[in-house]
Write a structure and sequence with these properties.
Strand content: 15-25%
Radius of gyration: 19 Å
Largest sheet: 7 strands, mixed
Helix content: 25-40%
Mean pLDDT: 92
Strand order of the largest sheet: 4-3-2-1-5-6-7
Order of helices and strands: EHHEHEHEHEEEHHH
Distance between the termini: 34 Å
Low-confidence stretches: none
Structural class: alpha/beta
Length: about 200
């Protein structure tokens, strides 16, 4: 998993509450277990018209936000079903950080397992960041996970809290497999000892 230390990129505003996982990645795109290629389906029902052409009014289709890496979203982001395809689609599109006032628990935890940083801020701070994100090509935020700080285009900063273990995992690029592999030498030693004491196993 790619490490997340510091990210500076365009932030796209999505001032919509209760964005569920079906809106993030519609069920039509759930036929794959691959983590790649899902970016085209991200917010598909809002990004595309019925004829398949782009909806020019959707934020990620606007020229200033086509390469957005940060999403500033409304409350309760990621609610609905527990599909891991939702963070996969965000990551495949290029989104590495989502900022909101709250997240659905399963989506929140799935983000960390896929290298995405979900940040919870107060409504007051979200309003400031939403305003920053509304500046088009000037909507550049810097997110520093080490200092747990967001810096806006005008230089203002917002501190955020994060679980220490989750922070450690992102900073070091450790998903569940990576955490297990950190114990590889201990696992190997156990297997060797177990083979000697239980050769029939």
């Amino acid at each position: 998993m790619e490490k997340f230390v510091k990210l500076t990129g365009v932030a796209a505003p999505l001032p919509v509450v209760n964005v569920d996982t079906d809106m993030i990645i519609p069920k039509d795109y759930l036929k794959t277990i691959k983590r790649t290629g899902l970016g085209t389906g991200l917010f598909a029902e809002a990004r595309y018209k019925e004829d398949g052409s782009e909806n020019p009014d959707f934020v990620l289709n606007k020229p200033a936000y086509r390469n957005a890496q940060i999403l500033v979203a409304g409350d309760n982001f990621g609610c609905g079903s527990s599909r891991e395809h939702a963070p996969w689609a965000l990551l495949d599109f290029g989104i590495r950080c989502v900022i909101s006032t709250s997240f659905a628990d399963i989506f929140y935890n799935n983000c960390f397992k896929n290298g995405i940083l979900p940040i919870v801020v107060s409504q007051e701070d979200l309003d400031k960041l939403m305003d920053d994100a509304s500046r088009g090509s000037n909507a550049v935020l810097s997110v520093d996970l080490e200092s747990q700080e967001i810096t806006g285009p005008d230089g203002g900063t917002i501190k955020f809290d994060i679980d220490a273990f989750k922070r450690h995992c992102l900073l070091n690029g450790l998903d569940d497999i990576g955490l297990t592999l950190e114990k590889a030498s201990s696992i190997a030693a156990f297997e060797k000892a177990n083979a000697q004491t239980h050769p029939w196993a």
